[in-house]
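Explain the record.
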Amino acid sequence: MIGKFLAINPIAFSIGALSVHWYGIILGTAALVGMILAISEGKRFGIIPDFFMDLVLIGVPSAIVGARIYYVAFKWEDYKDNLGEIVKVWHGGIAIYGALIGAIIAAVIYVRRKGYSFWRIADICAPGLIVGQAIGRWGNFMNQEAHGGVVAESFLRDNLHLPNWIVNQMLIEGQYYHPTFLYESLWNIVGLVLLFVLRRQKFLRAGELFFSYFIWYSIGRFFIEALRTDSLDFTGPSWIANVLKALWSPMAALGFEQGKMTYGGNIRISQLLAVLIVIAAVIWIYVRRKTGAADVYYSDPIVPSGREPKEHQEQAVIAGEVMTETHEEAVQTETIDSTKKEQKDDSNGTI
């Protein structure tokens, strides 16, 4: 059939014995784009680029470690007899929620050492996080992983109108699958636009953009996760499983079917976490506003507490020099104008 080609090779190129995988390239690109967005917004608040570069250098490794630990912990049966596979991240097998946990822990430590409020910096980084996830999902595409259940080829071509190169990559061992990576990537791109709009609203308080990111991402993840066939799952109380199933019912009404769970459980961990995160985030925003704790707005200046970081001391010095030069120029201009006026008055007196 026209348009059918071999699947994309997960290895981008090789240098001798070293193979460079698309997965790593895409994750690196995701981190770079996210950092650029944070740097751009940080400039509005007088935060220099080096701050975010250092944050990325600390946060990305922490995120990868957290993501891998999270994934391996829930799939220990697959790794306990082959521990060497644990470090082979390029083979896939990382969890977004684990990445967020690792990155947040590292960020809290770093940001506080620099004297900043974590919530203020988290707000600035929120758009970078969601665009990073939108890009990062294409790493799953290259590895042919994190997909949904079996679908007909016609669904991908005629219903979704996907290009050949995506359809062909969804052909795995003779069957086509839901491109859940694409669903989540598009959902996150829409979320990025919403965050851009939201952060310009005057009512937004510190920390609320960060939690809005979590709310948006978790809602999308809840509905998309059930389509996947590689979800981390466990057997829990039936009432929880029934609640999750009821919440997902709109997707079933649209004709979608849930994918099989990896270990035959009845609760998908990511779905449960998504619901808990949305509830916790909404409560956090409400309580902070109700108690008056949310007294700092997103648009307020960001001032480090206590001793100013070295880079901001340097900025303060530069700003002071500029202000001094401006003041001196103003004084000189005023003196010249005054002298000219006196000369004019003297001239008028002699006439």
User: Anything to note?
Assistant: The chain has one domain: 11-307. The beta strands are 11-15, 18-21, 150-151, 171-172, 175-177, 233-234, 267-268. Residues 11-307 form one domain. The chain has a mean pLDDT of 86.
